[in-house]
Write a structure and sequence with these properties.
The chain is an alpha+beta fold. It contains 12 helices and 21 strands. Residues 1-17 form the signal peptide.
């Protein structure tokens, strides 16, 4: 494992103040990359000009192939913004309406006669998420999922709630929208993407892939196991499809969102519909606030890729990040980048770990279970570090914050140990585990 280089923090404040905002952003991302916290791309667009575009780390660690600004990486759920844009184009062309029922296309899906295109776009359908709600997802995540097979799977799900009664994010909704695009146009999702968006606004590195191809300047995703960056297995693109399978670059994401939010891809009324929020979610768009600014965009996560992109029509500025080596909070990276860009107060993070004796770490070793959590979590010591591993998942190294509290910042996981027990927090979720 590379040694932490704190020398970057020891340069004088005067020297740092003399750097341009772009040099400061570059210093931050270089610092994170040097400390094995981040690999990926970042670009910034301002008034139609790409003012920052740089990549850090490797596209393929095993061969030593480095990332560059044109390396195509998976963008996860930012795919949904492209899908929603094409749906709204079909609405503009009067080939579809927002009130068209799902039953017109897939009548066997529960409540299809009550679910509209509007509900699908806003995640108000009650259709369970095949990725997060289906306990058998491990059986089909790495294999080809034909359209008829995934539709059949969705038909067999029990509706979670009455359509339009509440909001629940579901990848199933956007895969169905992708199928509807194909059904109406009689063309593949990829063909529609190319003609309706990519060629229309001159994107160079955005596509619907079949499999990662390093020879075509595409990149893998990695997690840091405490010593090395380890490659994460690739999901089959047919599964995530119109909900999350696309690849792109940060430059292309900025160009796409700028074109969309400046009215170059849909009618003005359709754009306003996309920006209209219900339960903080529009039609393929979310709002990301920073201080008094409002960015329209989306986030994404697939395998160990993490992405975020947003555009502020008021100051005509956009930011896009795609992470392919995820060992630090994407949100915290973007707060740092935005703070440095806009001149807000910001201090580099510190990665110095609280020292915990090996004897205490060994006390925490063991397998923990919770009646409320579907997997057991194994905790163990390796090379003087505490690691955790959920059943069937990759292990991850924990960072000590005190003798009893440990975190895995990339996934916002917090563990607090007591005598033969462990408290687990992730975001708003919290579980109590006991040692077997």
């Amino acid at each position: 494992m590379k040694k932490l280089l704190f020398l970057l923090l020891l340069s004088t404040s005067f020297a740092f103040s003399q750097q341009t905002k772009f040099q400061k952003i570059d210093s931050l991302l270089t610092f994170l990359n040097t400390n094995n916290k981040f690999m990926g791309e970042l670009s910034i667009i301002e008034k139609g000009k790409m003012v920052f575009s740089k990549a850090y780390g490797f596209a393929d660690v095993e061969s030593g192939k480095k990332l560059d600004a044109n390396t195509k990486l998976k963008i996860g759920s930012i795919t949904k913004t492209f899908t929603a844009t094409m749906i709204m184009q079909l609405v503009d062309e009067k080939k579809l309406t927002l009130e068209t029922k799902l039953s017109k296309f897939y009548p066997k899906i529960p409540n299809a006669d009550k679910i509209t295109i509007h509900h699908l776009l806003h995640h108000r359908t009650g259709i369970p998420d095949f990725l997060n709600d289906d306990p058998t997802v491990g059986e089909f995540i790495y294999v080809e999922n034909k359209k008829e097979d995934l539709v059949k799977r969705i038909e067999n799900y029990t509706s979670a709630f009455e359509p339009n009664s509440q909001h629940k994010y579901s990848n199933s909704n956007y895969n169905l929208l992708g199928y509807i695009i194909e059904d109406i146009t009689k063309k593949s999702f990829s063909e529609n993407l190319n003609t309706r968006i990519v060629k229309k606004i001159g994107l160079k590195n955005t596509l619907f892939p079949t499999k990662i191809d390093i020879s075509k300047n595409e990149g893998n995703s990695y997690f840091f196991d405490g010593k090395n960056w380890t490659k994460v297995p690739e999901w089959h693109s047919s599964l995530s499809f119109a909900a999350g399978a696309m690849v792109s670059t940060t430059d292309d994401l900025n160009l796409f969102l700028e074109a969309l939010l400046e009215g170059k891809l849909t009618s003005k009324s359709s754009l306003e519909q996309m920006k209209s929020m219900e339960n903080y979610y529009g039609k393929g768009l979310i709002i990301a606030p920073f201080e008094d600014r409002k960015f329209y965009g989306h986030t994404g996560g697939i395998e160990n890729f993490r992405a975020a992109a947003g555009y502020n029509p008021e100051d005509k500025t956009g930011f896009a990040i795609i992470v392919n080596g995820d060992n630090y909070s994407r949100n915290d990276i973007m707060i740092g980048v935005l703070s440095l860009f806009y001149g807000s107060d910001y201090s580099f993070p510190e990665f110095k770990q609280f020292e915990v004796s090996k004897a205490i770490l060994e006390q925490y070793s063991g397998t923990y279970k919770s009646a409320a959590f579907p997997m057991k979590i194994k905790v163990f010591v390796e090379n003087g570090n505490l690691l955790a591993q959920a059943t069937g998942q990759s292990s991850f190294q924990l960072t000590a914050k005190s003798e009893t509290e440990f975190v895995f910042e990339a996934a916002m996981i917090q563990l607090k140990f007591g005598e033969n027990k462990m408290n687990f927090k992730q975001g708003t979720m919290e579980f109590e585990f006991v040692k077997e």
